[in-house]
Write a structure and sequence with these properties.
Layout (H helix, E strand, L loop, with lengths): L1 E6 L5 H16 L3 E6 L3 H9 L7 E5 L5 E6 L5 H8 L3
Parallel strand pairs: 1-2
Antiparallel strand pairs: 1-3, 3-4
């Protein structure tokens, strides 16, 4: 499973701490993480292709490319990640 993390460089430091915690949780659960700068040209294109309208956003994508779960405007809690990847 893979996670796309859409974020803006201009977000606050407290938000960055939450994002770091999420990345650690995903790594522990063997989910590959790809960070996407939502303000870059490629990030804007990716956000449009996945219909992402608010940031931060997290997409969990299965190995076959199907989007499993999407969170927009907030970061998911650890239990939400576990439920989505099938550990609960």
């Amino acid at each position: 499973m893979k996670a796309l993390l859409f974020d803006r460089k201009s977000d606050t430091n407290s938000h960055k701490l939450e994002l770091n915690g999420l990345k650690k949780n995903l790594a522990i659960n063997k989910v590959r993480v790809q960070e996407v700068d939502a303000d870059s040209p490629s990030g804007i294109g990716m956000a449009e292709s996945y219909d992402i309208l608010s940031f931060p956003a997290v997409l969990l994508i299965r190995e076959d490319g199907v989007v499993q779960k999407v969170w927009q405007g907030h970061l998911p809690a650890n239990n939400e990640i576990h439920e989505s990847i099938g550990y609960i």
